[in-house]
């Protein structure tokens, strides 16, 4: 059932990824999109040249799970993330993160704190990494 | 035999150089595994020897419940300075047991709190997105395993960089990195000289996840950009206070490593620095195991001999 992302053999962009990974990516994409988006838009945005039907399947699955709301937009559906529940959870998470505690063993953060020196080193590194840095 | 009892207590002195060399020169996956095993073995051996000292030390105390034979001159002579270190060992041992228990309990409570906070939130794949302008991203082991990311963390990243972030967090969950973190953390409670290993492992699991994500995406520079951008986005609104380091912190080192060539996965040659690290680590743990076994067996035999039947 699961298509592993083939860890042994890195290839160019658009490596195959499992359904779970695709769901995550589509969900993340719609959270940063401003406003409702159709399957065609998602297909165009996502790297890896996914089939239209694959995108539609993922979107319906996320809708079934209650993660996306949808409304008719012409002949297709337009999707937006459902924010009510997520907002409540976000506030609970915020409260947890705000109270002082040593949670390093439980929650490993993606990035740790930067010192002022770190910041200048980092900017130099990203600058040297080439024009790619300005993509975002 | 006599000094062998103290050797496992001193061998964690090798932890600092081994952690430095392994962290800098081994593939992060190899370094994580090696350092975790080393710190667990060294801490178990040192705790065992401390426990033996406690037994002999307690036997010296007036009014102790242990057999009188255990405080015989024969037993005392077998361990140099036992009257001093045997007594010192008692509060040390109790302090260690308390520290390990308290740390373990606190981790469990924190984990439970984090799971409760996100309980019930639906996830796409493993991803739970939370609307919060403060940037954060965590891998939270379950069940169910979750990747918790705030919108503040997603917004500054482009499509490829978001994939990099998700792949990195997924690598933490797949590699069960929390086990290495928890094990080295408890080992550091058991012997404070093992703390550098925990600090290094906290760094090598991040590097490991970076490398796994780079393999999944087939692109190292995207990961480097994602890590760098995320760190810059998180700056100024730090969720936690953190000390400022004089040396470059973990994030610039990770980015620099990703912009360089992939680390070699083969075992290093014995002459290289990585080889030295592995060699010192292997020798240190072997000596520690042998010394503590030797001490334990000798002491147990001695105590049996001294126990009146």
Automatic annotation (TrEMBL), chain A:
InterPro entries: BlaI_family, WH-like_DNA-bd_sf, WH_DNA-bd_sf. It comes from the Bacteria. GO terms for molecular function: DNA binding. One of its GO terms (biological process) is negative regulation of DNA-templated transcription. Pfam families: Penicillinase_R. Keywords: DNA-binding, Transcription, Transcription regulation. Belongs to the BlaI transcriptional regulatory family. This is Transcriptional regulator. It comes from Embleya hyalina.
TrEMBL record, chain B:
Keywords: Hydrolase, Membrane, Metal-binding, Metalloprotease, Protease, Transmembrane, Transmembrane helix, Zinc. Its cofactor is Zn(2+). Coiled coil: none annotated. Residues 105-183 form the Peptidase M48 domain. Gene3D superfamilies: Metalloproteases ('zincins'), catalytic domain. PANTHER family: POSSIBLE SENSOR-TRANSDUCER PROTEIN BLAR, SLR0241 PROTEIN. This is Membrane protein. The lineage of its organism: Bacteria, Bacillati, Actinomycetota, Actinomycetes, Kitasatosporales.
